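quick one before i forget lol
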Amino acid sequence: MIRDLSYADCSPDAYNEYAPGDENNAVRRANLRLYLRAMSHRRSNTLLVMEAPGYRGCRLTGVPVTSRKVLLEGVPALRMFGREAGYRNVDDAGFERVYGEQSATIVWNALSALAAAPMIWNTFPFHPHIAGQPLSNRKPRADEIKLGAVFLARALSIWDFERIIAVGNVACDTLQDLGLECQKVRHPAHGGKRDFIAGLAALLSAGA
């Protein structure tokens, strides 16, 4: 899975944070590998599908909806992440001052409060940005969602989930196009924090 991610072709206005030939990307591949192993050990029955990496989160860490702050400081309530667990930071040129991400903070705080650790994946696993502006985010295009659906389907073939929760319309539409049943909550960005937390609380049982 990670090898295939690394060799996927992206358009010039999307960044493959796992691509070979870059030491920082090698660290991100290692971070993702640690995360997937941790999720396998936990045997979570729930998959939380987000939209795409943001420049303050997965673009830098390699782990879906996980900022440098979350990755390095960890999520104590869930016994996840942290330097002591082997997760590593990289200092990409131009991103030196980026540390936290609002969506990552909201998601992991909500999961901590619910004592739930579902596996998280992105509809489009690479960072879509405005052309020439790597420190920006944009919605993935139809062709990118189609590419991402291949990896989403692969993840679903590897892990067995009893429940799939789509975060936002892009994730929900993609899952439905794949013929998969899902429940939907609002994306936490753009004023959606309260609805996201309430929706997640209604769907997730403790220990998921």
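fyi The CA atoms of residues 124 and 148 lie 4 Å apart.
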